[in-house]
Design goal:
This protein has one domain. The protein has helices at residues 2-16, 18-21, 46-73, 78-95, 101-120; strands at 37-38, 43-44. The chain has 5 helices and 2 strands. A hairpin with a 4-residue loop joins β1 and β2. The protein is mostly helical and 126 residues long. It is elongated. α1 packs antiparallel against α3. It has a two-stranded antiparallel sheet.
């Protein structure tokens, strides 16, 4: 199960890259057009502000990759790493609503799994 969770977190890190490449205009498509607003268009942060948000998306993408590798290796503290990265990701997804609405639910699943993993022994070594 730890391999599956690790791969899931690595895939989630790849999904976060869109939050970097679009604000930096490295990619543009109809599903994710370039914009400078947050909170469903209610707050315009301008070109510089949206690039800062893009860097935060990149940082969380790298942190999720680290969390995924930590889970697969069962590195001490993997739960804390994953928990704080998922919280940061959840915050970014809320700020970027509605485009990142799927990420809200993915992060909630990760957080719930972390809360309950000791009780259901999902990651126990066999």
């Amino acid at each position: 199960m730890k391999i599956a969770l690790g791969i899931f977190l690595l895939m989630h890190s790849i999904a976060h890259l869109a939050g970097f490449v679009v604000p930096w205009q490295l990619m543009n498509n109809t599903e994710m057009p370039y914009k400078t607003t947050l909170f469903a268009g209610h707050w315009d942060v301008g070109d510089v502000g949206i690039r800062v948000i893009g860097v935060l998306w990149l940082a969380v993408a790298l942190a999720f990759a680290w969390a995924g590798m930590s889970v697969m290796r069962m590195t001490q503290g993997w739960e804390s790493i994953t928990f704080y990265v998922a919280l940061a990701s959840l915050a970014l997804c809320i700020v970027s609503w509605p485009e990142a609405r799927i990420g809200v639910f993915v992060n909630l699943v990760v957080l719930l799994m972390l809360v309950f993993h000791n009780n259901i022994n999902l990651l126990a070594e066999k």
